[in-house]
Amino acid sequence: MRRIVIAVTGSTGAVYGVRLLQICREIPDIETHLVVSSGAEATLRIETKLKPSELESLATRSYGEYDFEAPIASGSFETSGMIVAPCSMKTLSSIATGFENNLVSRAASVHLKERRRLVLLTRETPLNLIHIRNMLQVTEAGGIIMPPLPPLYFELNDFSRMVDLTAGRVLGMLGIDTKHRLEWGVD
After folding, report:
1. 137 burial class (0-12, 13-18, 19+ CB within 10 angstroms)?
2. Smallest Cα–Cα separation from 144: which of 74, 85, 100?
3. CATH of the domain at 119
4. Could you give the CA distance from residue 57 to residue 99 in angstroms, rounded to a whole number?
5. Neighbours of 32 (CB within 10 A)
6. How many domains does the chain have?
7. In what side-by-side order are the strands of the sheet with 144-145?
8. Which residues does 183 contact at the CB level (< 8 Å), separation at least 6?
């Protein structure tokens, strides 16, 4: 069984966290551990019409934002990686500075210290110098900054397909192959 931590934070793009959980449910040997920040709850309702409890039902396990006793807060709880989708600039800042103010930033810090994959789907535009420096800091610590930019080179005009291709690429960063990943020359 491969364990993946998925965090959804308060930035636009909640659909990415939702879709990642849905895809992971289709894969028999994946166990998902979810944290939803309080900032994500409003965005989730606005963008997806889902309640936090509905999102939590897609995960194998879910934890409260301040549950520092959760297994994912410890390096002894082995995972295949962590994805923050979407990753707000506030969360990016917490991770970049090691400010473990909630379970999302604590679990991310654990992934960095244990040298496990940490993928942040950062959502902000335009970027200011502080954002860029925080992205650099996380990258230097071993994290992967992966803004969810949709592939446009296949003349895709189906938003769901664009989200699926991005989710497939993100899971590929953790070594998980899905039918949702982008195949060159295949639409």
Report:
1. middle
2. 85
3. 3.40.50.1950
4. 29
5. 21
6. 1
7. 61-63, 30-36, 2-8, 81-87, 118-122, 144-145
8. none
In a domain, 130, yes or no: yes
Residues 6+ apart with CB under 8 A from 76: none
23 and 172 Cβ atoms separated by less than 8 Å? no
Task: Note down pLDDT in tens along the chain; length 187 residues.
Answer: 999 999 999 999 999 999 999 999 999 999 999 999 999 999 999 999 999 999 999 999 999 999 999 999 999 999 999 999 999 999 999 999 999 999 999 999 999 999 999 999 999 999 999 999 999 999 999 999 999 987 776 666 788 888 988 999 999 999 998 876 655 444 4
For Cα atoms 7, 120, 185, give the angle at the middle one, nearest 5 degrees: 115
CA distance 75 to 27: 25
Q: Does a structural domain hold residue 182?
A: no
Q: Report the alpha-carbon distance of residue 115 to residue 119 in Å, rounded.
A: 12
Q: Is the pTM of this model over 0.85?
A: yes
The single residue listed with the structure tokens 């993100």 is 170
| 90 inside domain | yes
Containing structural domain, residue 107: 2-173
On whether residue 15 sits in a domain, the answer given is: yes
CA pair distance 176, 172, nearest whole angstrom: 5
Taking the C-alpha atoms of residue 118 and residue 142, their distance in angstroms, rounded to an integer, is 8
